[in-house]
Amino acid sequence: MTQYANLLFANDAGIGIITLNRPQALNALNQAMLQELDSLLDVIAGDDTVQTVIITGTGEKAFVAGADITEMLPLSALEGRNWAKFGQKVFNKIEQLPQPVIAAVNGFALGGGCELAMACDLRIASDKAKFGQPEVTLGIVPGFAGTQRLSRLVGKGRAKELIFTGDIIDAQEAYRIGLVNKVTASSDLMASARALAEKIMSRAGIAVRLGKAAVNEGMDMDLESGIAYEAEVFGLCFATKDQKEGMTAFVEKRKARFTAQ
Ligand code: CO8
C-alpha cells in the first residue's frame, strides 16, 4: 500500500480507515492532502476487500479545521475557482464511492472539514465535535460544496443561518438539526463507527451499494425519474444470490449468509 504524507490508511477486516493526518495544522486540507485523498479514493473504489470506509482525523482536537488558510491567502480569483473545483471533485468521489462512507467526527469540522463530513454517507460525532461554515469570517463563501450539501441536509433556513453568521455549533445542536446521525462519547467514537460499519457489512453488500446509488442519484432527479430509477435497481437485486439467500433464510427462519454476489 502506498505511503501518504498527510493521510493514514488501514484495511481493518474490510473497514477501510482513512485518518486525515496533519495534526500540526489541525488536519487542515492543503493541496497535497487533497491530492493524496483523491488517489487513495481511486484505490479504495477498485478494492472489493474494502466493504465500508470510515474517515476520521488524527488527534483529539480536530477532524478537519477547514481548507488550509495559509495556502488560500494569496490565491487569485481563477486559482480560487480551480482549487474549489478540485476539492469538489474529490468530495464527489467520496459521495459516489461504491462503499458506504462514515465520517467519525472527532473534533472541529469547520469549513472544508464540515463539507468533507457532509460528503460522507453517514456522520457520527464525538460529544467534543464542533461544526460550522466560518468562511464569511475570512471573506469567502464555502467552496467545497457546503452551500449545496448543507442546505440539502438541514434545509435552506438553517443552512443560511450557519453560512451567513459563521457560527460554530456543538455536536448536540448538529444532531438536533440533522447534520449528524448520532453523537457518542469521545472515547466511544471509533467503536461506535466500527459497530455501524460492521452492521452494514453484515447486510447484503450489493443491495447496500445499490441503495446508496439510488438515494444519491434520486436526489438529483424529479420524483418520477427517481422512483423509475429505484424500480430498475430493485429489479437488479433479483439477479443476485444474496436476494435468494436473504429470502430463503427468512422462510427457513435462520440467519442469512450473504456473499455479496
Ligand atoms: N488552515 C491552516 N492552518 C490552520 C487552520 C486552517 N484552516 N486551522 C488551524 N490551523 C493551524 C493554526 O494556524 C495553528 O498553527 P500554529 O500552531 O502554527 O500557529 C494550529 O493549526 C493550531 O490552531 P490554533 O492555535 O488556532 O488552535 P485554537 O485551539 O486556538 O483554535 C480553531 C482552533 C478555532 C479551530 C482555529 O484554529 C480556527 O479558527 N481555525 C480556522 C477555522 C476556519 O476558519 N476554517 C475554515 C477555513 S475556510 C474553508 O475551509 C473553505 C473551504 C472551501 C475552500 C475552497 C477553495 C478556494
Automatic annotation (TrEMBL):
CDD domains: crotonase-like (cd06558). Its EC number is 4.2.1.150. It holds the Pfam family ECH_1. The keyword Coiled coil does not apply. SUPFAM superfamilies: ClpP/crotonase. GO terms for biological process: fatty acid beta-oxidation. InterPro entries: ClpP/crotonase-like_dom_sf, Enoyl-CoA_hyd/isom_CS, Enoyl-CoA_hydra/iso, Enoyl-CoA_hydra_C. Transmembrane segments: none annotated. It is an enzyme of class 4 (lyase). Keywords: Lyase. GO terms for molecular function: 3-hydroxyacyl-CoA dehydratase activity. PANTHER family: ENOYL-COA HYDRATASE, MITOCHONDRIAL, ENOYL-COA HYDRATASE-RELATED. Belongs to the enoyl-CoA hydratase/isomerase family. This is Short-chain-enoyl-CoA hydratase. The gene is crt_1.
